Amino acid sequence: MLVSLRTSLRLLGREASRFLVTSNLEKRSLNLCANAISSSSNSGYDFKTLKVETPADFVKHVEINRPNKRNAMNANFWREMVECFNQLAKDEDCRVVILSGAGKVFTAGLDLTDGEIFQSLVMSETDCSRKAFKMAKSIPKFQDSFTAIENCPKPVIAAVHSACIGGGIDMISACDIRYCTQDAWFQIKEVDLGLAADVGTLQRFPKIVGNDSLTRELTYTARKFSSEEAESIGFVSRILKDKDQMMKQALGMATNIASKSPVAVQGSKVNLVYSRDHSVSEGLDYNAKWNMVMLQSEDVMKAASATLNKTKAVFSKL
Ligand SMILES: CCC/C=C/C=C/C(=O)SCCNC(=O)CCNC(=O)[C@H](O)C(C)(C)COP(=O)(O)OP(=O)(O)OC[C@H]1O[C@@H](n2cnc3c(N)ncnc32)[C@H](O)[C@@H]1OP(=O)(O)O
Fold first, then answer.
1. What's this model's pTM, rounded to 2 decimal places?
2. Residue with the nearest Cα to atom 37 of ligand 1?
3. What are phi and psi of 154, to 5 degrees?
């Protein structure tokens, strides 16, 4: 049974390879056009606080770009993160995203000097109930800025160097993979400013590190923790010597992921996020429903025949 299945797949694989060879020629010329479009389409990513580039096919690099202010998160940043990640979610030339910070540090967290932010939180209303009703609308908007990372079905790799403070932890907790440099340090800083972190750290960080006691210790004290501690608790999966090495590692990983079936990779992200927040049986049910459709993808046959023929599958845009 297994032998005949392998034989049928091999035959199908040969047919598929023949088809792929012819269509690869067309694809190569299409890719040339696509590359021309993708470098110019970056102009579609037009932001004040974020720089978006295409370092490799299907890989987008989003760089927080306020180096002189240590990439502090001002009102523009909070708005642009949603716009940027919603756009990346729809962009068929994007399969993986790398998120890094320009300049001396990854991010100093919330911009403590931006009047627009404070006005949106501390309103001109004098009545406390009216203020509260307004805040009930504005706080979720800040939360949406990082939930957009999680809702983007493309994997997001955070590349952290030096300081990652306050909102920085909220942000990278919504990412899929976290790398950092040896000199990186992290701080759940909010209590020092009289705040309970409210844009994702308290919800996502404990699920990543799986250590409730340590989460509470770091949250209640705002103690800085090092790259080594971040790795030992599973907050980052790799420490690199310096930023250059880290960006190379992130790009290598992104290119590898981008070469896989986007149907499979994006389906995996959606199911991982869903399963994190549901029971095992709910997750399995969701996965089964998802694959009722997705197993019918041409990518399954392409990937299987490439495996059998020891070739590299090329997947269509999604
Ligand atoms: C509803 C919203 C929910 C979100 C909540 C989020 C909360 C948080 O993020 S709490 C954390 C707030 N952040 C901080 O407390 C960090 C403050 N900054 C620092 O500790 C240091 O700047 C840092 C260690 C990051 C870097 O030190 P370095 O010596 O390299 O730089 P500085 O000389 O201190 O700063 C250079 C210029 O950047 C400006 N800047 C730094 N951080 C912020 C910030 N958080 N907000 C606004 N501006 C910041 C700093 O003022 C300097 O500017 P200039 O004087 O114009 O040169």
1. 0.89
2. 69
3. -85, 135
**Phi and psi for 133 in degrees, rounded to 5?**
-60, -40
In 3-state terms, what secondary structure has residue 239? Answer: strand
- Angstrom distances, CA of residue 31 to CA of 17, 146, 296, 299: 19, 32, 25, 18
The domain made up of 44-258 has a fold known as 2-enoyl-CoA Hydratase; Chain A, domain 1 (3.90.226)
Q: Is the CB of 193 under 6 A from ligand 1?
A: yes
Task: State the ipTM, two decimals.
Answer: 0.99
Ligand 1 atom nearest the C-alpha of 199 is: 3
Tell me which residue has its CA closest to atom 28 in ligand 1.
70
Centre of ligand 1 to C-alpha 245, Å, is: 26
What is the C-alpha end-to-end distance of the chain, expressed in Å?
Answer: 34
Residue 104 beta carbon below 6 angstroms from any ligand 1 atom: yes
pLDDT tens-place string over residues 269-308: 999 999 999 999 999 999 999 999 999 999 999 999 999 9
Q: Which of 64, 66, 70 to mutate to test the pocket of ligand 1 (most atoms within 8 A of CB)?
A: 70
- Distances in whole angstroms, Cα of residue 128 to Cα of each of 85, 138, 157: 34, 15, 41
Q: Is 110 in the pocket of ligand 1 (CB under 6 A)?
A: yes
DSSP 24-57: HHHHHHHHHHHHHHHHHHGGGS--SSEEEEEEET
Token pair 């310096």 in the structure block, residue: 242
What are the boundaries of each domain within the chain? 44-258
Answer yes or no: is the C-beta of 60 below 6 A from any ligand 1 atom. no
Distance CA 58, CA 309 (A): 25
Q: What tokens does 204 get?
A: 């996502």
Distances (CA, A) of 270 to 151, 277, 283: 8, 11, 11
pLDDT digits (tens, 9 = 90+) for 239-279: 999 999 999 999 999 999 999 999 999 999 999 999 999 99
* Interval between CA 109 and ligand 1 midpoint (Å): 7
| C-alpha span between 297 and 281 (Å, rounded) | 25
Token pair recorded at residue 140 = 């979720």
Q: Judge contact between 159 and 247, C-beta under 8 A.
A: yes
